[in-house]
Amino acid sequence: MSSPSTHRPLVEASSVSCRFPIGPARPFGPKRFVHAVDNVDLEIRAGETLGLVGESGSGKSTLGRLLVGALPVSAGAIRFIGEDVTHPTPARWYALRRDMQLVQQNPAAALDPRMTVADQLVEVLDIHAIGARRARHDAAAAMLWRVGLGSDIMRRYPHELSGGQQQRVAIARALLVQPRFIVCDEPVSALDLSVQAQVLNLLQDLQSELGLTYLFVSHDLGVIRYLSHRIAVLYLGRVVEIGARHEVLARPLHPYTRALLASVPIPDPARPAPAPQILGEAPDPASPPSGCRFHTRCPLATDICRRFAPPLTSPTAGTHLVACHHAVAERSIRGAA
Amino acid sequence: MSAPTSFALEVQDLSVAVHIEHGLARVVDGVSLALEPGQTLGLVGESGCGKSMTCLAVMGLLPRQAQASGSVRLGNDNLLALPERRLEEIRGRAIAMVFQNPHSALNPVRTIGVQIAETICRHEGLAWSAAMAEARRLLDRVQIAAPARRLTEYPHQLSGGMCQRVMIALAIACRPRILIADEPTTALDVTVQAQILALLRELQAELGMSLVIVTHDLGVVAHMADTVSVMYAGRIAEHAPVADLFARPLHPYTQALLAALPHRAVDGQRLTSIPGTVPEPFERPVGCAFHPRCAEADASCADRRPLIQSWLGAHSVACHKVTPTAEAA
């Protein structure tokens, strides 16, 4: 897999935050917010797949939705090919759907249960007035063929399709507007292993044929490893590490990334069983820990971690960034010696 | 009554038929399993392959519209033939189960302490205060911090990983000989999964339990199981010691599953996918259930159902294309 590192960023997020109001802790108490995404900087280059990995509650789906404008940004800015799309006018937001699309985890919920496959595909072309009206049905059939489905399913309803077929229809629907950027939010998590491989291969093929750019959100490191050019690791709404796939996987710098990688059971009985790396579970995002949000579970945590949030910097002066006081310190000690 | 089985648990020719709209669906179709004392059996398969139904049949917890046939041997007893009263004594005491979704398996309106103490009272006949003390010890044993406080809390106050620890505490409360864990970590994050799997291994060694671990995750099976049974469409496709299964999968389905794993993919190489989808229980193909998706299938596969037979020692497979050998080539 060659990394398209020379391309300019297609999507940029600068200091993006998203908070959701939740009920007060006690009646008439002060309003509380969950900071699902907190001050995230990210850029996605044209033609690449950025894998976004994290555990439940890390804000990875929220971040994906923010980038395609499916959720409003609370603070910060999002740019698409240089254009500020943080708060677009309704007309511009509408037009942007042709450039960016979202493929969701549960295709059964993403498709309209009361419309046939043909109707919901043609509807997309109608809304965006793509092609001549009479040609739209054929265009839909051609796109289905492209994702490996026969035209016989055009007349069927989503409930008549298997999970894998439903996800292909959802992908076909996203592709009909010829987008440049697709956020894939756990697109294969609901699928069985044998079908998962079909959909992953399809996404790979479509990327090389159409030059698509993906943000691929998943909790499954196996899938992320297979598909990504670069990997970003999210913990409680913050990016803790980001870099080229081989760098993050072979030389993880953040203690959380290391724990995550070492916790994955590799399907090979000859390897030792993964020993529990870190204790406990991620804290409630509504009341995140002070300083570095990982310090409550971190084996390296010291006083500075409890007091100051570490910035995302590169200890190697390269493109591999990490937000950890100790990863940086370790490097500078070695550098000084 | 026949001679007692030497296995901790022996399932022979188990079938489960469920009444549905379309007629009768054989969700489990002639499954045989054997669990050695103190060992772990991994039951692997995709959704709808009948692995959970097999467990429910073993526990005698099948829904009303399902009927089981065959035998489930535990010591001298065939569990399928026992009256409900006897089963109630066996469940929890001799054989216990941990479910996939701990939040829905626990009673939402009763405290953790009451739910555990209730089980202990019922099976061990302890007084309530002694049962509560035992419940506290159990929570401590499954590494729940501040067990005394947790006893008074409700399931919604606990995280997913903590709820699964409570489920495990409940399951081991009466020191069962056999523990069935049905996708125990599927709903959990991977760092928590590692903790729960380590806990299960520890408890197994401490209590000398036999473990059945049901999962769709070949990574979990690789590190938990001694032997593995692979299920497809209600039937056992292959059964082997864990190292043999991963080193030398014989059934085309097992081979395809391993080849579809993104973990094993070489850089830049496409994943091997299996065409088509798992058949519904009421439209299973004749002959070998896998033949419509199998690259090696021929006329005989569509015609006759392959029987499971030993290929070499404990490694057995149900496939016309694999012939038994005296020794591995």
Q: Can you describe what's shown?
A:
The complex is a heterodimer of chains A (337) and B (329). With 337 residues, chain A is α/β, with parallel strands linked by helices. Chain A has a domain at 9-24 and 32-99 and 179-266 and 278-336: P-loop containing nucleotide triphosphate hydrolases (Rossmann fold), CATH 3.40.50. In chain A, 33% of the residues lie in helices and 21% in strands. Chain A has 12 helices and 11 strands. Chain A has helices spanning 60-67, 90-96, 107-110, 117-127, 136-146, 163-175, 193-210, 221-227, 245-250, 255-263, 303-307, 325-336, and strands at 9-22, 32-45, 49-53, 75-80, 83-84, 100-103, 181-185, 213-218, 230-235, 238-244, 321-322. A 7-stranded mixed beta sheet of chain A has the order 6-7-8-3-9-10-11, sandwiched between helices. Chain A has a 4-stranded antiparallel beta sheet with strand order 2-1-4-5. In chain A, strand 9 (230-235) and strand 10 form a beta hairpin. In chain A, helix 5 (136-146) packs across helix 6. The longest helix of chain A has 18 residues, at 193-210. Residues 331-337 of chain A have low confidence and may be disordered. Chain B has 329 residues and is of the alpha/beta class. Chain B has a domain at 9-94 and 176-317: 3-Layer(aba) Sandwich (Rossmann fold), CATH 3.40.50. Chain B has 12 helices and 12 strands. Chain B has helices spanning 51-59, 84-90, 102-105, 112-124, 128-141, 147-151, 160-172, 190-207, 218-224, 242-247, 252-259, 299-303; strands at 9-20, 23-35, 40-44, 66-74, 77-78, 95-98, 178-182, 210-215, 227-232, 235-241, 309-312, 315-317. Chain B has an 8-stranded mixed beta sheet with strand order 6-7-8-3-9-10-12-11, with helices on both faces. Chain B has a 4-stranded antiparallel beta sheet with strand order 2-1-4-5. In chain B, a hairpin with a 2-residue loop joins strand 9 and strand 10 (235-241). Chain B is globular and about 65 Å long. The relative contact order of chain B is 0.14. The mean pLDDT of chain B is 91. Classes of the chains: A alpha/beta (337), B alpha/beta (329).
